[in-house]
User: Fold these one by one.
Assistant:
Number 1:
Amino acid sequence: MPGEPNLISCNQRPDAGKPAPMRCIAAVNTQTAQRAAGRMMIVGLKGEAFDADARALLEEVRPSGVVLFARNMPDCDTLTRLTADLLDYDKELLLAIDHEGGRIDRLPAGCTKFPAALTMTKSADPGLIREAARAQAFELRSFGFHINFAPVLDINTNADNPIIGDRAFGTTPEEVAHHAIPYLQGLTEAGLLGCGKHFPGHGDTSLDSHLELPFVELPADRLRTVEMAPFARAIAHNVAMIMTAHVVYQALDRELPASLSSSILDGELRGRLGFSGVIVSDDLEMKAVADHYGIGRSAVLAIGAGSDMVLVCKEPEAIRETRAALADAIADHTIAPATLYAAHVRIDKLLARRRKLARVPVPAGLRGCALHQELAERLA
């Protein structure tokens, strides 16, 4: 259409402090579709260094972010070099980590080891939990991280749950909100973006979604008043991101897991709860979705259902497959232009929020310091 701009002007990264302009028309070319697709991805790296293979992958896919795991950080020096190299490559890249404490502790030796969420709640002091989150956030930011995929907002309601357990902040929605919201506030105060997970609630499952697709048969009213209640509280406290669960909630969608369900993401999370931040999928390489839908198709379904970003956490082949599937779906309008536009606007707002939080100064010398160690011991 003469005089109309391209769909998304993401052929270049935005200047510092300026969000990339988001525009929408009916037709897109292949390159624009690929750039738009990559921008909706957060990807993992296999190794400990930003080597030629990792650089080639990022240059090809152009993701918005990179998520790092213990495999990427055998020691503090290696992690410092890796994050510095990534941000030297692209200063706008979002660096994310999945770091809670307890058994979900990614940072190397030399950093403070905080206990699991359920252990911390035994202190009966939400103020201490807030301080723990601030301490974790400052240590994470000292390496260059911008996002922590925490807090867990699931409720530990099933003793046979193999994946949540002591990662939850309680066994009732009131307990979870009472402790998880201060944790979220602590992250924000220290300049780190938090992400509540796993919507609408992974606490009452008996299967591990890394390995199998769980089903939950609870009635819709129970899901809304119990499982979703901590998420509603987090939304009221302006949580930046919410991660979805690879779990089928049959009262809300009899076929698709929440991460791929428009009735759950668009209907419940966006519509009923009014969440306007970024929705991100859990890792699409998890067998709960990869074995049933395929990674590429899962990505397309997730974005079409209401997610703004998808996680692909390890294999380069899976990352490339995801980018290709999303680009094809953008080009042929399987992902509607309006859906695409809305997602990119929310990503822009997340980047702007990241830049604002980056102004919070990071005190020197806090990694594993005596003050943080004492705090961790009090909470243990």
Number 2:
Amino acid sequence: MLQIYNTLSRQKEYFKPLHEGHVGMYVCGPTVYGDAHLGHARPAITFDLLYRYLMHLGYKVRYVRNITDVGHLEHDADEGEDKIAKKARLEQLEPMEVVQYFTNRYHRDMELLNVLPPSIEPHASGHIIEQIAFVQKIMDKGYAYVSNGSVYMDVEKYAKDYPYGKLSGRNLEDIVTETRELDGQQEKKHSFDFALWKKAAPEHIMHWPSPWSEGFPGWHMECSAMGTKYLGEQFDIHGGGMDLMFPHHEAEIAQSCAALGHDSVRYWMHNNMITIAGKKMGKSYNNFITLEQFFAGNHDLLEQPFSPMTIRFFILQAHYRSTVDFSNDALVAAEKGLARLTEAYQRLMKLQASDTTTIEIGNLRERCQEAMDDDLNSPIVISHLFDSARAINTVFDGKGTISEADLKELREVWKTYAIDILGLQLDGAQDAGTGMDAYKGAIDMLLNMRLEAKRNKDWATSDKIRNELTALGFTIKDTKDGFEWSL
């Protein structure tokens, strides 16, 4: 039975959905004011893995992943300029032009990474009415106040009735000492109060009418309102990156408890961060790499392009709750590991059954399921597949045999866990869109020309093609069915 680590309880818990056979899952999606980067890829792939596995287990999943397109301010707090509005102002565009452009690019990147689309992808700007109504509920319960046209959560009053800080493990005293002094704090009763609705400054270009002012919702409000709208007042799973635990998800819990009188989320799940040479990724460190730069290889920290499947495999090689430190060498190693799995899978599809099995198959299906049930332990699944690859290569090289029943089982397990659950594309499709498909086609064409030359006993042409490809770094292996090659 699936166990997942619940951030709220800080322990693994057996997953029991609220409604039998149905799972409601909400994951914080991107703020679309720039191109997606490696930090966006990790939660997308992590919760794609969970989504795929839940469906494999037979659940009907409603997966909601939001698009933040209003209210996310420069300081990720309650002050500063809206990031999308700033981009629109600097480039003389409508804010929704910025949103649409980067949303389209995000979708393209997710498709290349083989991340399944969510069931629903709501935009914050499309749910202003719901957010105003949610703020009003909090006002009616007495846990919010109006100040100069803005509405703030009265955290101190809330904390007298509900535990505040239970997700991140912080208490109110810690939060007081850590809260930065920002412009506009004089509007609040306390520095740790956070905005539910902000009155728009005259120059603010994204604003809507409300009972309190012409303004826009606070950043945290969108998830409370949209999660409730599409998944109900209580749903199963809420996910996101660990950096969202405080203040974003802590604020969500407070908002929902204040409005509804109870928690909305039963299981909180957070993926850990990706660092680069031990540092948090950021433009100020000159280590900010977009996914497009990974695919093209045009960044100073990259020595070559990396396919979307290499990025996906690199992320899945680590457990989602562990920190992953990026380096060019780590991606090269991931590329080689993925190539080994790809080769094994393609060889598995070419194997011929014999009467008996002379290799060790083991209980691969059970071991993979056990790993996935243990808090989505994708690295262990991958290690089991590598173990299986050795057996596949033994048969392929003519040093062992496999029966028809065992061959069918092995193919089904690889398809289930490598392709359907891990989401790896092991048939060459992973390189589509990066130029690698044409590259592979060209190598195959040359080697087919070499085969034709050998059949015609044109040894000079055959040797010339092989020698020149070898000099370029290719390994060519003749097989009974034709050839195999790798770089």
